[in-house]
Amino acid sequence: MRILGFSKKWNKLSQKEFATFRYPRVDKDWYIGEKVQIIIQPRKKGGGEKLGIAEIVNKEIRELDPFFQSDSLITDKEAIEDGFDNREDMVDWMQKTYGLDYISAMHKLTLRWL
Question: By the 8 A CB rule, do 36 and 3 touch?
Fold first, then answer.
């Protein structure tokens, strides 16, 4: 079972079903029906805090680039549900965290606790 790590205990993690945004993986991308171990700070010494197991119940391609105009553009509402103040706050966090000059397409993964 693979680990789906989080940098902090976001409020959304206390909901029965929640979404998270992830960049596509080159080695083995996430898929619907996959069960994952949710861990806070998985690279921390001692392995981080294990919260439990969740299943990916939906996967959508979403766009964060502010110049991309489409139905797949991440909205302010989605960014707020994800734990940010708005979409721009999410863009700033992604750029700071991943050091990107521009933001490419992401996957919106919807998970349900088991």
Answer: yes
Domain range list for the chain = 2-113
Q: Which residue has the higher pLDDT, 41 or 113?
A: 113
Assign domain 2-113 to a CATH class: mainly beta
> Distance between CA 36 and CA 87 in Å, rounded?
26
Token pair of 94, please? 């992604």
Q: How far apart (Å, rounded) are the C-alpha atoms in residues 74 and 81?
A: 11
pTM as predicted: 0.85
Query: In the chain, which residue ranges form alpha helices assigned H by DSSP?
Result: 76-81, 87-98
9 within 8 A of 43, measured Cβ to Cβ: no
Is the Cβ–Cβ distance between 56 and 110 less than 8 Å? yes
Selected residue with higher pLDDT from 98 and 3: 3
* pLDDT band (50, 70, 90) for residue 102: low
